[in-house]
Each structure stands twice: as C-alpha cells, then as structure tokens.
Amino acid sequence: MNPIARPLRAAVLAASLLAAQAPAAFAQAPAAATAQGAEQQVDQVAARFYDLRARFDPMLYATANGDSRYDDQLGMAIAPKVRAQYLADNHAMLRQLQAIDTGKLSPKARLNHDILVFEIGAQLDLEKFPEHLLPLNQFDNMPSNLANYAGGTGSQPLETPAQYRAYLRRLDQLPAWIDQAIANMKEGIRTGVVQPKIITTRMLPQFRQLRQRDPEASVFYSPAKRLPAGFPEQDKRELAAGYRKAAVDIDAALARLCAFLETDYLKAGRSTAGYGALPNGAAWYQARIRNNTNLDLAPAEIHALGLKEVARIRQQMTALAPRMGYEGPLARFPHWVEEQAKYKPFKTDQEVLARYREIYATVEGKLPAYFSLLPKARLSIQLEPELTRATASDHYTPVAADGSHPGVFWAVVNDPRQYSTVGMSTLLLHEGVPGHHLHAALLKELPLPDFRKFFTEHPSAAAYGEGWALYCETLGKDFGLYDDPAAWFGHLNDELLRAVRRVVDTGMHAQGWSREKAIAYAMENLGYSEARAANQIERYMVWPGQALAYKTGALKILELRARAQQALGPKFSYAKFHEVVLGDGTLPLPILESQVRRWIDSQR
C-alpha cells in the first residue's frame, strides 16, 4: 500500500462512523424539521468551536489568520486550567456532533460536520501529552511574536487609536503570560519535560535583546513613537503613558525569565535532540505525526520514503550538474553552486525584494491558464523584522478578512551580498503565489464558516497548507520558470530539503539521532553551511512532525492529480482540478481525497 494513502485512525477520521446513531427524538420528528435541526446543530457547534479556539489562543488562531476581532487578547493557552477547560469543551462538542444524524445533512453541512469531527479529534489526540510544559523555543515564542507586531506592518496593523489600544492591552497581558511560562517550565523540570540545552542558548539572546532599562528605547514602546499626527491629543497622551508603563512591566518580566533560563532551566536542559527522550516520547511523537500529516504513518516508513526521495532527487541533480558547468563529485555540487558569485548579484536588501517582485509579476501572467479560481487580494513582499531575522525562515502571513492588512511574504535577508538567486523562484511559488497566498486569500473570499475561513495556522492544517505550497513549487516547470538550469537547481535543492527533513525529523525523534548527526546529514546532502543547517535542524527539534507535512501533502495532491488525469484523459483540466482542491478551503487529506474522487466520478 502507498503509505501516503493510509488513513488516520478511524476514531479520529471516520466521521460517518462517529455519527452512526441518532437520538430517538430525531427519529420521531418530521423529515424536513429533522434535517433543519441537524444542520442548525452543526452550525452551532461550528460557531462555538471557532470562538473557543480563537479565544484560547487568539494570536495563533485569529490574528495570524487575518481575523482582527480578538486583537486585544493575548490568551493564556499555556495555563493548565485554561487548557483543561478548553479540552473539556472540545470533548463536549465532539459528543454533540456524534449525536447528529448525518444522513439528514446536506452535502455542505456534512462537509462542515466531518471537518469539525476531524479537527476536534486531532486536538484531543494530543490531550494526554504535556505540550504546555514547553511554552518557549527559539523559533516560536510569545515575547518575540508580540514584539514583531510592534511595527504595525504585519498581522496586527497600527493605524487607528482603537488598534493602538488593542495592541497595548496585549502588551499589558504579556508579564502574566511570561510568569505562567516560568511556572510551566519549573513543572517541566520536575517531570523531565524540558528543552535541549542548545535550544535554551538560542532563546536567550532573543529575550536579552528585547530587554531595555530605558522604557522609551524598548521595542514595546516603539508604537508610541509613531503615533499619527491626526490622533486627538488626549489619545496621544494616554497611549504614550500606557506604552511606557507596558515597556517597564515587560522588562521586569523578561528579567525574571532570563534569570530563570540562565540558571535553573539551562542546568536542567537535556543533551538529546528528539522527543523520544521525553517521558512517553515515542507516543508523543506518533501523535505529532498524526496531527501534522492527518495520517497514521509509522516513523520508520516515513524515514525510508525520505531516503528514497533523497536518492531520486540526487539522481536528477547528477543529470543537471553538467548543464551548470560542474563536473566534480555530486557531494560537492551544492557547495559549488553556493560558492558561485554569479548567483549572488545583490548589494542591498531592497534589490532582493525587487527581484522577488519581478518573479511575482511573471507568475501572475501564467496563472489564468492553470487557475479559474483566483483571489482578489494581492501579495505584499516585505523583509523579515530584524529581531527574528537570524533564526527565522522565509514565511507567509495571511491577508486579513476585513482587508485591513495584506497577505505578506516575509523574505529573510541577513546579508544581501550572500543572498542567492537560485532558490528565489521556487520560494516565491511556495510562500507567495500560487502557494500560501492563493490558498489563504481565497479562504477569506469563499463563503465558508469562520472555523474554515480561518483554518491555516493549526498544525493539523499543515498537510494541506504546506502540501499545497510544495505542490505549487512543481508548477514552476509548467510555468517555464525552471528553463534556467540555476532555477531548476533551486527547485530541486528545495525539494531535496523537504526529503531531507523526513529523514532527520524521524531520525532525531524516533531513532535517537543527535543534533550533530542531523546537521551533518543536512550539510552533506544540501550543501548548507553548518550555521544554516543548524538553524534548520534546531527548528525540527522544537517542532516535531511539522516538517513531515510538506512532502506528505504534496505527494497526496500529485497522486490525486495523476489519478484524475488517468481517469479523465482529454477531459482533464488543470484549472478544474485546482478548483476542486482549493474550492472548499483547507481540508484534511482523507477528506480532500474523497472530494476529488467524487469530482472524478461526476466528470466521467
């Protein structure tokens, strides 16, 4: 059996089995009333589910997804009581969904029901694992995330007095969040659930950089320095005073955090790299695999498929090397490309952004031949904020549903003189158009309930979201972007990265690989410097399973496209296929497969 086709456990995925029995009260009601009541129940659960999740972690589930309604709330998802209540509420919603007679639902309502059952089940699958005891890492932490919003150019714009007050209220809640994180990490030390030492050493510089004894020099005060001249004078005075106080309070909280990390936490840190070293770590990692891929894949088979993919892509690189003028051993090929000055023409970061905008314009001209469903919202291309530039990867943040800010591709440019052109086309296809932006912007424009409209940032959405973006990278060949051998190398090297991720992620978390072994494997196969490889490997150390979503999702979409091409022959249309894949928004992979199968049957 193709491992990508294996479904997640029936208890989580098979919504039809979960809804097999309807209460007797439904059986006695008239058919029309029963159908209407069943659909109303689904709608009620959907609304409650979205609101609960958005309030539970508003930074992740609302603001980052372009929903600004909760921009004044930070959330305390890491607090044990809050987490326990949230999970209890999810159990109650799942029971309510199980009591609905799905035979009475319209296809639209049934899809909402099945996605809800899947998504609630995916969250509850992680309930027994103490994820809240690892509240901070170098790649994703609340202080840095909140600091990145201070510029007002990302997911939380700062243009009106109300927006300034909303962000200020979030800042006021940060000290309590930091104190809760410290309490959680103390419990983690007691129970053996701690980050590796190297991760703590990576976090500390971020928090030290955020500290400022002079509150008016703090990044958290910086919005007060940019108050628009048109604001009423009273608003200016109140906001400036409020931001100053917030900066003082946050600095004191960061001082407590740094002191704790430097002493107690660093001392208790582990030398191992993977989750396998944590209590119940093997089961925890398996749950993370299910959560991130939507499938119940064994680490060993993921690892084996990763090795197979690495070998396949390296064969393609062997054929490509002579076209680029390289005749040495394959192991040196990526290093050779990295050393070529002709692929590093930039002197300023603005020149890098200008090149990305040129590629964007080219891609836009190709889209109509392959897509009939396109969003109205355009993509913004910006530089990653300086605070997180050293540890971040290029990424995308979604457009706001109300249009208050655009979808943004954040380019990480640490030194423009060392920024290579070879991977720029494939990266723009993935992070921008037609990858994440086309998907996320369409979500905001399609007539979907909120829990689906804002469904991009949760880990269980990664298999579809990252799978779609990686699939879009392959379209560069159809668009003619890879006719340039250097751009084709960039695509192959990025595809190789996703295959290498499968090997190192499972290697560290399931096979006991050390961080150093994983870094060496990445350097050998990708031609990365040690620093660049370490940045990637340390990301996988703190985000187990997420790196598996890319290839899993892309292979599934490619498999479904090949199935449609074979079944429909000359009737196959790229535009129609993409409309089916995108038209219902973010879907768990098994549900996406069912949708495509139904479309194929309808076209025969």
Q: What would the average pLDDT be, to the nearest integer?
A: 92
According to DSSP, the number of beta strands is: 3
Overall tally of domains: 3
Show unreliable segments.
1-32
Derived from helix and strand composition plus strand pairing, the structural class reads mainly alpha
Main β-sheet, spatial strand arrangement: 1-3-2
Strand proportion, as a percent range, falls in under 5%
SSE blueprint and pairings:
Layout lengths: L9 H4 L1 H4 L5 H5 L2 H26 L1 H4 L18 H19 L8 H18 L17 H7 L12 H31 L5 H14 L11 H4 L7 H36 L12 H13 L5 H22 L12 H7 L9 H18 L12 E5 L11 E3 L9 E5 L12 H8 L4 H10 L4 H4 L8 H18 L5 H26 L4 H12 L3 H13 L6 H20 L5 H10 L5 H15 L1
Parallel strand pairs: 1-3
Antiparallel strand pairs: 2-3
Write a short abstract of this structure.
The chain is an all-alpha fold. Helix content is 61%, strand content 2%. The protein folds into three domains: 3-128, no CATH class; 132-279, no CATH class; 284-555, no CATH class.
Give structural attributes.
604 residues; mainly alpha; three-stranded mixed sheet; 26 helices; 3 strands; 61% helix; globular; disordered N terminus
Describe the structure.
The protein has 604 residues and is mostly helical. The protein folds into 3 domains: 3-128, no CATH class; 132-279, no CATH class; 284-555, no CATH class. The protein is built from 26 helices and 3 strands. It has helices at residues 10-13, 15-18, 24-28, 31-56, 58-61, 80-98, 107-124, 142-148, 161-191, 197-210, 222-225, 233-268, 281-293, 299-320, 333-339, 349-366, 424-431, 436-445, 450-453, 462-479, 485-510, 515-526, 530-542, 549-568, 574-583, 589-603; strands at 379-383, 395-397, 407-411. The relative contact order is 0.11. The model is unreliable at 1-32 (pLDDT under 50).
